[in-house]
Amino acid sequence: MTEDLSPAERYAAARIRAADQATALAPFREMYDFGLDPFQIEACRALESGKGVLVAAPTGSGKTIVGEFAVHLALAEGRKCFYTTPIKALSNQKYTDLAKRYGADKVGLLTGDNSVNADAPVVVMTTEVLRNMLYASSRSLLGLGYVVMDEVHYLSDRFRGAVWEEVIIHLPESVTLVSLSATVSNAEEFGDWLDTVRGDTEVIVSEHRPVPLWQHVMAGRRMYDLFEEETDHGGRGVAKREVNPDLVRLARMENQRTYNPRERRRGKMVREADRERERRQRGRIWTPSRAEVIDRLDSEGLLPAITFIFSRAGCEAAVQQCMYAGLRLNNEDARQRVREIVEERTASIPGEDLHVLGYYEWLEGLERGIAAHHAGMLPTFKEVVEELFVRGLVKAVFATETLALGINMPARSVVLEKLVKWNGEQHADITPGEYTQLTGRAGRRGIDVEGHAVVLWQRGMDPGALAGLAGTRTYPLRSSFRPSYNMAVNLVQQFGGHRSRELLETSFAQFQADKSVVGISRQVQRNEEGLDGYREGMTCHLGDFEEYARLRRDLKDRETELAKQGVAQRRAAAASSLEKLKAGDVIHVPTGKFAGLALVLDPGLPAGRANGHRGFEYQEGPRPLVLTAERQVKRLASMDFPVPVETLERMRIPKSFNARSPQSRRDLASALRTKAGHIVPERHRKQRAAAADDREIARLRTELRAHPCHGCDEREDHARWAERYHRLQRDTRQLERRIEGRTNTIARTFDRIVALLTELDYLRGDEVTRHGKRLARLYGELDLLASECLRDGVWEGLSPAELAACVSALVYEARQADDAVAPKVPSGAAAKALGEMVRIWGRLDALEEDLKISQTEGVGQREPDVGFAWPVHMWASGKGLDEVLREAEMPAGDFVRWCKQVIDVLGQIAAAAPRENSTVAKNARKAVDDVLRGVVAYSSVG
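Structure (tokenized):
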């Protein structure tokens, strides 16, 4: 209270208030009807003082306020501000928010799809658009004062993360950078790097959630708190989070009730009392159904809720299950408002397409307040779900994890069905960072007093492990930066080779690699001290035990080498026998999952690659496609044939045979069993081991027995010390190689890329050739392949639809490899061009291998995937949506997304293609028009 202050203190307080009123922050604060949090004020003050800022705070904490203050400062100073986001949906949403606040005349939007008021002082854009501006030295950069990088933690993304670092490194020094990130555990490290490359940068980290988050587990009819809050009664009143003992007891009880058949007496039933106890316990513990979960949350007043299901099909099934259960979360008035909004937003979709898109089932779910949200949905449908959810007209959304990284769509509650998800290779536990990201959606600032995260009980759940997941805040930011061909020519064009190399060494990736070297160096020092001790332990009074140990190792290595040679010879013999197979041969698969009788449908020889089948690498040997006696069609690998294979019989394969038809497979498998089921394959005889006749092994054994240390009584003790010495010495050398490998890693990769581009005449020293200038305009994973196709005239003379089919191979990647059947491709000129693209890729792949440019490190060109060529060719040829989606066998949302990526690359090709004596540029522009129609045209977000 000012009355309690002395006159001097009141005067000082008045001066502080007056100073605050004189800042740009004072009028900015008045634009909001809520007070700013301390971390927001701290970041805004740092920004106003001329510093860059990195703000790391939880989802929903309001860190975008700092970005909006940068917009406010830019407008006040008469400068420009670019507000970048990782995805188009977020750009569209931010554009709408800023246009509402500052007026549509002052705010623009630039994404791959839209260009609105691009010369405005404030422009919202995707990060890739700003990267392209920097490389093109766009005039739009003149007068740029601030750049806001929202969701900057995306730089960990292995596919797109490099773009964030490119922008941060290449922005002019005069631009103030505002980086907004989720809570990461190494914010200070990231801040140190920003300080190095961007100058004075203040790091502001806030762990505080403005809306408290309560963690629960739902088991059966009950919802348990995950943590039991206990107060420390030592007088300090510090809260201690302990796992709820009821949950621990529940897990123990479930483990005890697991039935063990050994405990059952032979020939007698379990006692009635045991069965009754089993029933009672089962009545308390089960995983509630999706409809039960939503009904329970509704009765507890915990809606709206987002339920994360790590499967698109699971999200759609959840909506159906809730509808079948009769759930209705909206009253009649809300249903009417939903219908009005939906009909308005989908008015441009032709009536015949609505049925194909499942519109009426989707609308029925929305009217009930239930919806799915995933990447397979039509973008327009996703936007409607988002809008209705924010308005409170959809109260239960079943979503894949992509929603957690996307637009602003907070809920009161978040439900996690399982704590395991498919990561593209295997089912893996979600990480603490992923758990934090998903549950961060719970609790709406200014609406909810608290948020709720609910995990469904699953058999075998460990409450302690769940508590560890919920209580850990480890989400480190790891750079995914790697040089690309396009990046290399753009850098050399702007800065020359030497300066480009220096710039790349300032990347966050190199910064992290250099820091890790310090710890490795310390480990090398400790290892060297350990080696001294081990050397002493293996000292023998009879002679040089290190020499004796080397003889033992040489003997062991020679025996191992001969064993490997034997395996290699057997594999070579097996591969040779596989190369002799023909379609119609009946064989016996000796081992593996598909061991037994099989009919060869396709021998899988090199010529088989011409069909463009994705993932088929001949370097692994022939991979025959077979029909097993159990009616399965599978492409086998060399590992299934450890011994040579012989043809047991021959069979004719009917021309009408279709590998995808169950009936067709059943009939042919039956004929196979009838024809050859009685034949018993010959057993393969083992050959004499090569080691028995090897002169080198005989020599080493003689020297070993003649060595003085061979007669030592403590020989085996010395040998153990010698083995430890050898292992530690090997580990130390590996560490030293790691130190050597991590120093200048990015620059070395850049050197290899420059060497390849020089060999292909894209670069001549610091000069970028006309081919290089064309490559500089092509952005994408297969930038070099696209450039080579333009150079070789592969796409000349193709129709627009055929060109779209070929370009799709540059962008499309199947979600799962289908080894059984090669995808359908357009015939004629398109098929020939696609085959030529694969040939060019093979040439580039061999060149990359020679120069040690590795795809596993995120550098290099993957094989083009022709899986989308036929659907996009049909669509560009004017076929209807129903027919195309039926042929494509993919959801509408995926189809639209791939079409938009094809359109993006077609636009780049139109700009980069030769102007004279070429039809490519003209046909690329026509192909864009042909693909950008119907569902693709009226989906504003992709």
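The chain is about 50% helix and 10% strand. Residues 722 and 911 are 66 Å apart (CA to CA).
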